[in-house]
Design brief:
Strand order of the largest sheet of chain A: 4-3-5-6-7-8-9-13-12-11-10
CATH topology of the largest domain in chain B: Alpha-Beta Plaits
Number of helices of chain A: 11
Structural class of chain A: alpha/beta
CATH class of the largest domain in chain A: Alpha Beta
Strand content of chain A: 15-25%
Largest sheet of chain A: 11 strands, mixed
Number of helices of chain B: 5
CATH superfamily of the largest domain in chain A: ANL, N-terminal domain
CATH class of the largest domain in chain B: Alpha Beta
Radius of gyration of chain A: 22 Å
Strand content of chain B: 35-45%
Number of strands of chain A: 21
Order of helices and strands of chain B: EHEEHEHEEHH
Number of domains of chain A: 2
CATH architecture of the largest domain in chain B: 2-Layer Sandwich
Oligomer: heterodimer
Largest sheet of chain B: 6 strands, antiparallel
CATH architecture of the largest domain in chain A: 3-Layer(aba) Sandwich
CATH superfamily of the largest domain in chain B: ACT domain
Structural class of chain B: alpha+beta
């Protein structure tokens, strides 16, 4: 079995935890010195960096949250001067404002190593062609995969997202062997290739699929249609991007790169750390990252951790697929969407009155369908079709610019959105991506 | 002189229009003119009725939203070229028609026409200057005794 950094990936647990402790101490000290928000939160709890001597002290430390990134937008939480930042990425925040993260040279190198570990685990090497169909841009997905591919000496094909016909032609002509994209797009590509009658011309062996929830059924379907092995990868901009954790050849949970990240599972309401194996909210602490480090960052993803040794020989613990969220974030076409972002746009369009609305997400032909019904109200009503269509278009355009993806907006009759106990049901997600677990 | 028009938001759903018309007529309100503009998702139903405030209140009770606006209504000769004459008056004054529709008149030999233009004030002025007769509210609304 091939590994990228075997000594780290198979490090005995005792040694690994000791390493984590040392790194945590280092991180807490430098963050206390360089990140104002962290220092304030430590002071509020009466904590000093010296109070952290090892991993066991982690639970004393204050949590950090997605909204911190909004409050300190854009660079307020960076722990190094901007002269040391080599690249930034951005993601959607809970409101219209995006969130920004930054990487130093070491951070980018660490990220590439994490992705490289996964590439090796799925059988890629310097003879592989890594087809990166995640967006290459501010979105965190593409560059992580790209740098990982370069790191192991494979040939990177940074085609980025979109244009299905061209994706397929490129895969055939360039001889892509590893496909990186969202699982729903992988299925979509498979179907398009099938329709074009070129499935047998693809040279794909493995696929690395992430950025959105998917089921075991989808995995089987992708594997059958593309005749590959399909692997899950996990990441989020605030921690690293793709590569925080990844599946090995055993396909039985995602190994967390524990030399860089400490994972905890907590009770989302009380913040209490839950015993090993419990299901709860996943919390991460980045212990090597320099540019934008976080202590006890609340991912809002609900999952559990598996401490059993893996057959692959890696000693790093595994997390299972997130089975929902402790907030109301949705992932649509790989993009994070918060209802609060939608509310903000509607408030603006509705002249400070938020019209009643309902978000409907479904999956048709392996593509997410995203619709928003907005109840017509007297202050939106105009006497001409043109004026009302203008409102519809304005809502669509503003949402597209805020969210990064455009929903279909439909104006509906007042009071036509179903309400339960007087409260409108805001989200209808018919995709059932967590096997009925949500 | 303007008359009041009721514009109603109608979602494109089976039976919606019938329900609205039924609610109005059940309450003894007479519709003298109607036009429906539609898109794939919704339509705007425009009505001239004899009691616009009551109609609006009734619809509101039923959860239907509407808006009252003022439009111009003119009397034109029910003969060849009658409408052209009115349109020419607007065209000469560089006024655009946003929508228009006809309605059932009480005067024989005359047709009544509702106009919404991009400049109703100016349109009213040029109609008067060109001796085009305007419909009086009393011709349309119910006289309350």
């Amino acid at each position: 079995m091939s590994m990228w950094q075997k000594d780290i990936e198979t490090m005995p647990r005792e040694e690994l935890v000791k390493l984590q402790g040392e790194r945590l101490k280092w991180q807490v000290k430098r963050m206390y010195e360089n990140v104002e928000l962290f220092r304030n939160r430590m002071d509020e709890k009466g904590l000093k960096p010296e109070d952290v001597q090892g991993v066991e002290d982690l639970k004393k430390l204050p949590f950090s949250y997605k909204n911190d990134l909004r409050d300190y937008y854009p660079y307020g939480l960076f722990a190094v001067p901007m002269s040391e930042i080599r690249r930034v990425h951005a993601s959607s925040g809970t409101t219209g404002k995006q969130i920004v993260v930054g990487y130093t040279e070491n951070d980018l190198d660490m990220w590439a190593d994490c992705f490289a570990r996964m590439l090796k685990a799925v059988g890629a090497d310097e003879n592989s062609f890594v087809h990166v169909a995640y967006g290459l841009g501010l979105f965190t997905g593409g560059f992580g995969a790209h740098d990982g591919a370069v790191k192991i000496g494979a040939t990177a094909i940074p085609i980025s997202a979109g244009n299905t016909q061209r994706q397929i032609k490129t895969m055939i002509d360039f001889g892509s062997t590893v496909l990186c994209c969202t699982p729903s797009y992988a299925l979509y590509l498979a179907e398009a290739a099938e329709e074009m009658g070129v499935l047998d011309q693809l040279k794909l062996k493995a696929g690395i699929f992430g950025a959105e929830p998917w089921t075991e059924e989808m995995r089987k379907e992708i594997e059958r249609k593309l005749n590959i092995k399909a692997y899950d990868i996990y990441g989020l901009s605030e921690i690293l991007g793709p590569g925080v954790s990844y599946e090995c050849e055993c396909q039985c949970g995602m190994h967390i790169c524990e030399d860089n990240f400490i994972a905890e599972i907590i009770e989302p309401d009380t913040g209490e750390v839950l015993p090993e194996g419990s299901k709860g909210e996943l919390v991460f602490t980045t212990i090597t990252k320099e540019g934008f480090p976080v202590i006890r960052y609340r991912t809002r993803d609900i999952c559990s951790l598996n401490y059993e040794p893996c057959k692959c020989g890696r000693t790093h613990i595994r997390m299972n697929k997130p089975q929902g969220r402790s907030d109301d974030m949705m992932i649509i076409r790989g993009v994070n969407v918060f209802p609060s972002q939608i509310e903000e746009v509607l408030l603006k369009v509705g002249n400070q009155v938020t019209p009643n609305y309902q978000i409907i997400v479904d999956r048709e032909n392996n593509t997410d369908v995203f619709e928003i019904n907005v109840e017509m109200s007297e202050n939106l009503l105009a006497d001409s079709v043109k004026a009302i269509e203008k409102i519809e278009k304005q809502i669509t355009a503003e949402l597209r610019s805020t969210l990064g993806i455009g929903p279909k907006v439909r104006l509906v009759n007042p009071k036509s959105i179903e309400r339960s106990e007087g409260k409108a049901k805001r989200i209808i997600d018919r995709r059932n991506l967590v096997g009925g677990n949500k | 002189m303007r008359i009041k028009q009721l514009s109603i938001f109608v979602e494109n759903k089976f039976g919606r229009l019938e329900q609205i018309i039924d609610d109005i007529s059940k309450n003894g309100i007479n519709i003298s003119a109607l036009s429906l503009a539609d898109t794939t998702d919704f339509g705007i139903l425009r009505l001239i009725v004899d009691d616009v405030d009551k109609a609006r209140a009734i619809l509101k009770e039923q959860g239907v939203i509407s808006k009252i606006s003022e439009v111009l209504a003119v009397v034109i000769e029910d003969e060849c070229g009658g409408l052209s004459k009115a349109l020419k008056v607007l065209g000469d004054a560089e006024i655009s028609v946003e929508y228009m529709y006809a309605f059932v008149g009480q005067v024989s030999g005359k047709a009544l026409m509702v106009f919404q233009t991009d400049d109703d004030e100016k349109a009213e002025k040029v109609f008067v200057e060109n001796h085009i007769e305007m419909v009086k509210p009393s011709d349309v609304y119910r006289i309350k005794e």
